[in-house]
Design a protein that fits this description.
This protein is an alpha/beta fold. The strands form three sheets. The chain has a six-stranded mixed beta sheet. Strands 1-4-3-2-5 form a five-stranded mixed beta sheet. A three-stranded antiparallel beta sheet has the order 13-12-14, sandwiched between helices. Helix 13 crosses helix 14, helix 17 packs across helix 21 and helix 18 packs antiparallel against helix 19. The longest helix has 28 residues.
Length: about 700
């Protein structure tokens, strides 16, 4: 007999009795049992024996010294007398007598004429007891509670205990919702499911750049939408794709775009959601996640920051104890490519630490594709700016290409931050539109930190900073691979007292001479201090740190040293050789000598350049001291055009006039607030006053 799809087929059990058990177990039976037990225990444990007597009997007992204590209830005209031990044995027999023998457990209750009369009687009884040397009757006067109050105070603790018990049991049985924080749901998956009706929908139009990555991701989405196109040729759907790249490059955004484009369910979960303090919870959540995915197939499962659960096994044995992370990873490996079939379920994951992932997770059949999401190049940055500038009121002459070239090395998240900071900067200055100068200020803010014009510096410090920064600009201007200069400033930003802004060329292969020129440019500030001031200061700390790292990379990683040619000790696996070095102590001495030699040679080279162009350096120092900010055109007016002009120089010149004009306006405003006496008369440091407000 056919059955409708919304009805279950009855189960035929032996004996012919197929009726459902009406008295099955339920949590409410447990609640009822607990309530009956608590109430019964309350009444059975109360061994107080109470007897109602007449007023005459009550007074006769008091006159025979039979009470230790009398409680008077004035509003009910009733009194309770606690019998002495001898009076209790005389008035109670049998079982009641046994209970009444306990002190304070035998009570007489009687109706009284009034509380005042009873009070007078107690005074008389106490006077008579005092003459006989007997302890007086303890008297207590209270207003009795109402019936509801009595019930509340009698059963209140019991009711409170029952309510608390019910609340705890409901939380344990899943009252917190599916996949909530209840005890029984701790092993449930916390994945969020998105569908095509999601309000905050992200599509591939919202993802700028990443053309190669989008191509592979779009192919996965197309396979889910039109699988017949691939299966006709014998192709199989990939099991998974791993998005790899630096932070902020758009890995999670790309996964959100997949959720918006695919007309299939999309489960999103973080790798840290699998790890809990309970043993076995991570593996249970993995099983529950893929169980839900199989029910919704075809679908996509996205695990963000998979390195939280996918670390290589065996690196940290944890003293032989049970490692919950490894159990979770084992279950994930089994679900992705085990005996079970996961047809129609594609697993996407994202991480920026692919080097620490387990090799079994990266093999074909689990994550078949590794999609590298790199930092955007200049064309991608132009497209990313186009996405983030949609909702910003910008000026018509905004040069997006120049912005893209000024933000070399910026990720998509950094570019979004630049656009937001520029809008905030324009709003702070009451502008109606966001202009190029606002974006330049935002880029300076993100790279160098907040501008601190109020930071107090002495004339000697200001002179030293000017010499130092002019040294960087002079040396880099006369180097073949020196980065094109944008501007030099001695206005403090963040932790830096001054800075030189460059627009580096984006190179895929960096020649050895470019690295040496970079070291020489970094040494220009310290070399200028030694040559033109006669002593060095601590301001070159960051320059020396960067120069030492580049020199060490030349010798140890790139094999560009003459003493140790074509040898690299770089570890691409990320293990960094643990506590041991991959070279001997003798080789370590050679490395130190080579690094020192490279730094010394480039330092002397910087001094030679500065000695050759010392007059131009002096003019540049004076201009920088006077104006605090100088641009490419100012350096070009002193030294002439660079011998090695690049395409970036032309782009810098386009925006030079605009930024210079804007800075001139700010300088006029600042100059109006200061007097002519604040200006130094010549280049001598002793005659230059501190100008801390500029």
């Amino acid at each position: 007999m056919p059955f409708p799809p919304n009805q279950q087929r009855p189960q035929n059990r032996p004996g012919g009795n197929n009726k459902k058990n009406r008295f099955g177990f339920s949590m409410f039976w447990m609640y009822a049992f607990v309530i009956i037990f608590i109430v019964g225990f309350y009444y059975l444990s109360d061994e107080t024996t109470t007897k109602e007597v007449s007023y005459t009997t009550f007074t006769e007992t008091a006159e025979r010294n039979g009470f230790d204590k009398i409680v008077i209830y004035g509003d009910k005209r009733k009194a309770e007398g606690v019998l002495t031990d001898s009076a209790a044995r005389a008035n109670f027999k049998g079982h009641e007598g046994a209970a009444a023998t306990r002190p304070g457990h035998a009570i007489f209750v009687a109706e009284i004429p009034s509380s005042d009369e009873m009070t007078n009687q107690i005074k008389l009884w106490n006077a008579a007891r005092a003459q006989k040397g007997i302890k007086p009757i303890e008297e207590k006067y209270v207003n009795s509670r109402s019936d509801w109050s009595n019930i509340l105070f009698s059963f209140g603790p019991i009711i409170l205990l029952v309510v608390l018990w019910v609340f705890i049991m409901k939380r344990m049985s899943g009252g917190g919702g599916a996949g909530g924080n209840s005890v029984f749901n701790v092993g449930k998956s916390k994945a969020q499911m998105f569908d095509k009706n999601n309000a905050n929908k992200v599509t591939f139009k919202d993802v700028a750049g990443l053309s190669e990555a989008k191509t592979e991701i779009e192919e996965i989405v197309e396979f889910l939408k039109n699988p017949q196109r691939y299966t006709d040729l014998g192709g199989k759907i990939p099991k998974g794709a791993l998005l790899v790249g630096p932070p902020g490059t758009g890995k999670t955004l790309l996964a959100k775009a997949v959720a918006g484009e695919a007309n299939v369910p999309f489960f999103s979960m973080s790798g840290s959601d699998f790890v809990e303090m309970f043993v076995g919870v991570g593996a249970s959540r993995v099983r529950d996640l893929f169980r839900q995915a199989k029910e919704k197939a075809p679908c996509i499962v996205f695990i963000d920051e998979i390195d939280a659960v996918g670390r290589a096994r065996g690196r940290n044995p944890n003293m032989g104890s049970n490692d919950e992370r490894e159990n979770t990873l084992n279950q994930l490996l089994t679900e992705m490519d085990g005996f079970g079939s996961n047809s129609g379920v594609i697993c996407l994951a994202a991480t920026n630490r692919v080097d620490i992932l387990d090799k079994a997770l990266l093999r074909a059949g689990r994550f078949d594709r590794q999609i590298y999401v790199d930092l955007p190049d200049v064309n991608d940055r132009v497209a990313i700016f186009g996405v983030h500038l949609r909702n910003i009121k910008k000026t018509a002459d905004l040069d997006v290409e120049l912005l893209a070239r000024q933000t070399a090395g910026f990720s998509g998240a950094d570019i979004a931050n630049v656009c937001n900071e520029a809008a905030l900067y324009a709003a702070r200055n009451n502008k109606k539109e966001v202009g190029m100068d606002d974006f330049n200020a935002a880029i300076d803010r993100i790279i160098g930190g907040l501008e601190k014009k109020s930071k107090i510096t002495t004339a000697e410090e200001k002179r030293g900073i000017s010499v130092h920064e002019a040294g960087h600009a002079t040396v880099s201007w006369h180097l073949q691979y020196g980065d094109p200069l944008i501007k030099v400033t001695i206005v403090p930003r963040g932790k830096a007292l001054g800075a030189a802004w460059y627009l580096p060329e984006e190179r895929q292969l960096v020649p050895a001479q470019a690295l040496l020129d970079k070291i020489c440019s970094l040494m220009g500030g310290r070399a200028a201090e030694e040559l033109f001031i006669g002593q060095v200061a601590t301001g070159a700390l960051n320059d020396l740190e960067r120069a030492t790292k580049i020199a060490y990379s030349l010798v140890v990683y790139y094999g560009m040293s003459d003493a140790i040619p074509n040898v690299s000790y770089y570890d691409s696996t990320g293990q960094d050789y643990g506590f041991t070095k991959p070279y001997s102590e003798e080789r370590s001495k050679i490395i130190d000598q080579e690094v020192s030699r490279i730094l010394a040679e480039q330092y002397q080279r910087a001094k030679d350049i500065l000695t050759k162009y010392k007059e131009g350096h002096a003019r540049l120092t004076h201009e920088l001291y006077e104006r605090e900010v100088i641009f490419t055109a100012d350096v070009e007016a002193i030294f002439g055009k660079r011998p090695w002009a690049s395409r970036t120089d032309e782009i810098i010149a386009i925006n030079e006039a605009k930024e210079k004009e804007e800075h001139a306006k700010d300088a006029q405003i600042s100059a109006g607030a200061s007097s002519d006496a604040d200006k130094p008369a010549d280049d001598k440091p002793a005659e230059k006053p501190a100008d801390s407000e500029k």
